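Notes continue from the previous slide.

Worked example: a multi-chain complex. Inputs as given:
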Amino acid sequence: MRVSLFYQIRDDDLERVLSRARSDGFVLLSKITPPQVAKLMEIMLQEASVDGLMDLELESLGPEGPVIIWSKKLARVNKSKRRREIMISLLKGE
Amino acid sequence: MTAVVQVKAREPMLKRVLSRVLSLFRKKKKIVLGIYGPVNSGKTTLANKISRDFLGMELGKVSRIPHETRSLQHMENIKLTIPGKGELLLDVIDTPGIVTHVSYRTFLRYGLKKEEAMIRAREAALGVIEAIKSLDRVDVALLVLDSTKDPTSQVNFIIAGNLRYRNIPYIIVANKIDLPYSKPQAVVKAFPGEKVVPISALTGKNIEELYLRIYEVAK
């Protein structure tokens, strides 16, 4: 698993961000606009399987981000209740 | 023999044109009001309350199972009259609850069979997409939150952030104030400087205040 960091992405990069999350396991996006978060959610929900299950999960950590996206196959993310700590656990891979 | 011919007096041209122009300005402004929020926050209960108050009928089914509303519900031409203020013509859209992920397993906990749960999950995912897309066509929005729950959830911030970014005026509705554990003051604290109206869509408590706020925001 690798962690990819993106800063100020363009709308054209959204698909690439999701494919990076699938391949690397974990993506952190900084300076992302609310419509971009909504668009990411939209793409992820569109790609959900017939049972509604998604291979990726998204968490927006505040009104202006940052946003984290991770592959449920490669990583597990635990948040502390006060949202100041995020623990990423490696599930598979090197 | 004298023939009497009655000639109907015609309005002068200028007067007719003027009255036509004035009627355009007198025409009521129509506003599209979107109801947004997380699942089970009482959006459809509020939409039903508005529908009952102005159209005399229910709009959608309400359930304790999440994602009962899985497609947009519309109410058209609602005339909101505020005594002493004026009138407003509204089209109301009730949207499915917005979530960042959907799983059929959620519905199994509510006693649904696996097949039913899977269909519901897929419809729910499509409903969320519809709800997000509808943000492009609303003039005013209500962000309906369950005041018995933590208001600082990511979904609430995502919706509020999108409304702010798109310059859509919105009112935060702290719903379910009829419940003993409701904390509308926590909603006010989570969204400082925002318009928050505590209501109970179920009992109708403080609903007049909400109608007044909608009128003020839309005008």
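Summary box: The two ends of chain B are 64 Å apart (CA to CA). The interface with chain A takes residues 100-104, 117-118, 120-122, 124-126, 128-129, 132-133, 135, 152, 154, 157-158, 160-162, 164-166 of chain B (CB under 8 Å).
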